[in-house]
Task: structure prediction
Amino acid sequence: MTSTEVTSVVLRPAGPEDADAVAAIHLAARAAAAMPPGIHTDDEVRSWLAGRLAEDEVWIAESEGAPAAYARFTESWLDDLYVVPAHAGHGLGSALLDVVKARLPEGFGLWVFEMNMPARAFYARRGLVEVERTDGSDNEEKEPDIRMEWRPA
Result:
């Protein structure tokens, strides 16, 4: 891509038909992230995420017509924000975080692993603040984590 080309990005709510794409984004992004290894099989992750599509609000960022990132959230929590590694750094995560902020104008929280410095820096640059640290005893991976919050001005 040359510097004069513009990438087409579409942000849209996900539906049940997006289950495979959401799972593929999740698995690819998590495998490349500064995170502990997942403890569930790929099939377990696919099944679980398909169920979450019916319960949670999920938005997809498409780049050039293909799903490249997603955000999954509830009334007060951002549970997932994942970007396919090849699309990282192109603004998809920021665009999805802006959707979450618009959909949850009273604020929200999220958990991030302590070791995930890139994600922690991403959220901090976008106005989220650290409010709690744990030793990881309450998460499945048993790794230290940090609760961050976005509090609107």
